[in-house]
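Hi team,

As requested, here is the filled-out complex form for the magnesium ion run. I kept the field names the same as last time so the parser does not choke. Let me know if anything looks off before we queue the next batch.

— J.
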Amino acid sequence: MSTPLNETVVLMKDIVKTFPGGVVANDHITFDLKRGEIHGLLGENGAGKTTLVNILYGLYKPDSGEIYVKGRRVKLNSPRDAIKLGIGLVPQHFKLVEVHTVVENIILGLKEYGFILRIREAEERIRELARKYGFRIDPKAKIWQLSMGERQYVEIMKALFRNADILILDEPTTVLTPQETEQLFKVLKRMKEEGKSIIFITHKLDEALTICDRITVLRKGRKIGTVTPDKVTKVDLARMMVGREVLFRISKSKMKVKAEKPILIVENLSVLSDKGVLAVKNVSFSVYPGEILGIAGIAGSGQEELMEAIAGLRKPVKGKIIIKGRDVTYASPREIYELNVAYIPEDRIRTGSLPNLTLWENLILKHHRRKPLVKHKIILNFKEIFKFAEKRKREFEIVAPNIFVPARTLSGGNLQRLILARELTGKPDLILAVYPTRGLDVGATEYVRKVLLRERDRGAAIVLVSEELDEIFQLSDRIAVIHNGELMGIVPTSQATVEEIGLMMGGALRR
Amino acid sequence: MLNIRIKVERRLIIDRRLPALISILSAVAGILVGGLLLTVVGRSPIEAYAIVFETFTNPRSLMGAIELGIPIIFTSLALVLPFRMAFFNIGGEGQFYMGAIGAMIPIVLYWSGMDLPYGLYLPLMALLAALFGGLWALVPAILKAKWRVNEILTSLMMNFIALQIIWYLVSPGGPWNEANPAFRERYLAYLREQGVSVIPGFKGTPLVPEFARPPVIPGTMISSALILAVLASIVIYFIYSRTIIGYEVKVVGESEAASRYAGINYTKLVTMVMFTSGVLAGLGGFVNLSSDLLKLTPEIAAPGYGYAGIIAAWLARLNPIACIFVSIFFGALTQIGYTMQQYLRISHFVSVAFEGLIFLFLVLGDFFLNYRIKVVKGG
Ligand SMILES: Nc1ncnc2c1ncn2[C@@H]1O[C@H](COP(=O)(O)OP(=O)(O)O)[C@@H](O)[C@H]1O
Ligand SMILES: [Mg+2]
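And here is what came back:
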């Protein structure tokens, strides 16, 4: 089965896919993949990228359209059919069994390796693959011991193990650190040189421009065009993707004169992690009305626990938290909420929203005890509730047919809009935002940042936790750097440099 | 080569009318197959079908079915809120017993010579039943809220404890046994009026006197307890869909992390919900005692009303209004069982197997509601 270079290995013609509920996820999309190329699929969240590749992988059936693989018209009824044709998919959300080892995960479902006797053999093959492509992984390691980057490699090896020569990666970099991303790109290039064909899904423009040979842009289920990176600029791509001009720099007004009384004071605070170890060590800072305090740090340095402690979700072991002059060190989440504090949690799906409940049920969460949403103390006032939800939906431009659809039907960006719409109700005095743009596309990220700045200009005090220095520098008035649970120092943004903050994040510098 | 695979898929969208339709179809299928079961023991399935038909069309048997279903309405309704918040209370049985014990208190006092205005007995019995059931249900709730003790184990254990209490109270020599000398004077006089001249001293309390039995609904043979049951299901429906409590129950059931984040006080909520649940199961015990059993004996455990409530609540998909219909259907099955035993002279076990088969079909039907089976051609 030798296909000459430049031969089309996949052709998807006029693919249409409509989901129950009427969303046209793919609207007559034609897409082709050549042998030995990395073809980028670029689009905002909800553009239909995952749907398109799921169709190619046999997970969804298209309503209409034709699929050709290596020159032959095919019908894909299940992933098994796709795997037989040499197609491998690394899903957006990994599907590995955490308590199993790497080998066990890789051979899962392969009949010919189902016996203990052949695990050795599998291990050997995995080692060989790892050597060939430069993965550094112990086949006997348990999945839960691996970083996100390593798990990704396991998923890729799983596909390679099944002899895939057409590899689909669905947003592989969202969970990776910059270093891990670079590593991945090296691996992809090596696979390309091997003659493998790769579909690389992303919503990050820089990545698409760096790694892809061609880029196909999708928007709202439609194909906008296919371009080569040398012929377009980042601005062009952004326009194709979002459908309008995008600001890469949001202008920030000068901070108004600093009020003398801080909204939030944290004093010598120590907090334990879920595992019972000290995650936040003796941290102190204050936040004033009208300012954004950015907390920079590598994810997992204690910033999540710190924010949970302020929100009342985690009891500190030492220190003090004062909000608007009141000692709330041991207050409940509800008491904190009643002090007009908003909290945008890290986990949007399980904590920040109720996936199977409707938009209105999501939008009234936390406010559901307030008049006029409630009458006679406990009775839901639907007239007011629906009015409230409609208004939030309109103001924050949440794209959904109505307020009665479940939240799980929203795309990532829309879900974050929903959370913002809910949290910013009632003009909060303090906003705690934890990785508010993580995993969002350009348009949604821009929106979230603008909203945070708008709130700051209104006079809210904001604590922003982010792992993207770009974001920290763009939004913060002051930058607090956390390393391994300790505060390495607080620097006004005007006096900070990326190098310096980077060194502090690594624990090499204190200020 | 023809290559056919069978594939099971989860349904994404479920039509609102589908659940009822599928349940009815599965029940019919179960009855048809159950009839065939009777041929094994040498009875005609046609006769069995006739009995089924009769039960659902003859007003007398239908009323019997409703009567038999009333306690299950209470015990299934009791589970709507706890199950919706993923609190798996299987202690309905024990709360039911405790309700019966509570309801028995005024009666025991009456037979020992203490009098209350007649009109007060029923309300007082209901109140005590509700209180006893409610308090009993709080134990697993508090254990879970405070120390995260698994509610399935605790609520189940509480069932056995409650039954032991009944045994203690009513066994010969026990404080509530009908032969207790404290009851003798009044109870013997009462029995004499009925033509009985001694108190036999079986395990059990004295009878519930006529004035403490709920009246039947005029023109029917159904206990007015049905009205209480229907009111209760409307109240639960209202709480679930129109109040903060119902909303918070929904939120906790959907995601505990989100409920904590939203500042919902789990301890308070589960306490309220379980108290309500126990009140309902307890009222079931009161109704069963005062209109059917008529004396507190360990036989209260025989029908397993609390456990039937679990199945009924689940088949009703935790919809309080549907609980009424499913429970009555359960009552009808029991009624069919009785009639078949009587007219077809089959053993109790065959009629139970017949009922079991129908349940099996209902469970299968539920599976098809959520999943669909597709035959896929090609490899
Ligand atoms: N299983 C599904 N049921 C209903 N709608 C869906 C389903 N999967 C995706 N969608 C909708 O289809 C659209 C495209 O989604 P998706 O392909 O996941 O986009 P992307 O991967 O580009 O973010 C979105 O509006 C999404 O809400
Ligand atoms: Mg996607």
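Two things worth flagging: Chain A touches chain B through 36 residues (CB under 8 Å). The longest helix of chain A spans residues 442-458.

Thanks,
J.
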